[in-house]
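Consider a protein example.
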Amino acid sequence: MKPFVTIVLVMCIYLSGSDSAGMYGKSVVFPAKTANSFVMLRTPGFYGLSAFTLCFRAASEETRSYGLFSYATDSNANELLLWQESKTQLRVEFRSQKSVFILPEMNSLLRHICVTWESQEGEITVWVNGRRSVRKFVGKGRVVKGFGQFILGQEQDSVGGGFDASQSFVGEISDVHLWDHVLQPNEIKTVSQGCLRYGGNIIDWGSTHYTFDGIVAIKDNKDCPN
């Protein structure tokens, strides 16, 4: 009698991060270029933004261009995009309107970045560690449309997808907040110091639900200001 041979099939299934609420005191680390590593922020729906303040901390040693922050809608994959064109050039794009700022070199040290914009005059400004850039004007009279998708780590070519590894973010990002109005200079300085007592009313890093996939690490940010 021939002996029985038992064949065991092992199937490895990768389970992405389940829906979780808030990342207060945490950072997201993207360690490598990929076409499938991202964090999806699940925010309450809004109809449109005639003004906004977007703030976050970021660090990257990459010398190529990449997306820092991506918001896509059905009508425009680049409804709101922050794109690092080089180590010293940050492009802010929304509704096909673009403005490029020359800033201190992006490097391995976490820095605090804020972008403010309002539709009435189209005034747009970038702040780095609480210090303001020159004022520029773009998108006068326009509105950033609502009911889209926020993604960290990738640049969207379609809502929630169309990722390209060559455009992916490699580095660390934390403290992402988005308000539907322009914060005052003293508030932005307070945010940069980690002292503001409330988060964004659209994206609040401390309470906004998120999911993630791919090679992503959610780490305690012990250096984050209290």
